[in-house]
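Entry for the shared binder. Reason: the reviewer on the internal report wants the predicted structure included alongside the sequence.
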Amino acid sequence: MKKSTLTLCGMAAVLALSACKSPSGAQTVATGQSTDSGACRFVRADTSGKGKNEAYMCSASAALRSAEAKEVLNPDIRVSYGSAGGNLTSRQVANARGKTAEETCQRAFLSTIKRFQTTAAQQGSKHIRVSSYFDKRTVGGDQYECHIGTWNSRVVLRGGV
């Protein structure tokens, strides 16, 4: 009886561990949901033993046109994306549990834009210029880099007011 119980426990442990692994290149977030709208594109996964770290390139214009952007951003402070000027950097995170890559990356991106808008309002400016600045690499154009870990997503922007 003891041997069969141990075997059963061992099999359960193997199944539990295999469920935690995500195949390389999969477009998943913490709950296993995939991106399907095309606003975010899977770039790479880093599985160097320090936990989950999936990189995505997402559309800034799609995020800025979203319903969430209309709710949270200040319409009086204009946002220019892709042309960074200035020396301000902001890193924001968003909860990734139960969200698609697009949802969590968009939330982190808009939080970062909102932070820049708050700084602009404090300085009396009506315009911000930002671009993606993850790992101190500037990404221009309409794309921003977003990294999704086990529990949250991260976006880093650089720009000025």
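Summary line for the report: Strands lie at 40-45, 54-59, 78-81, 88-95, 127-132, 143-148, 152-160.
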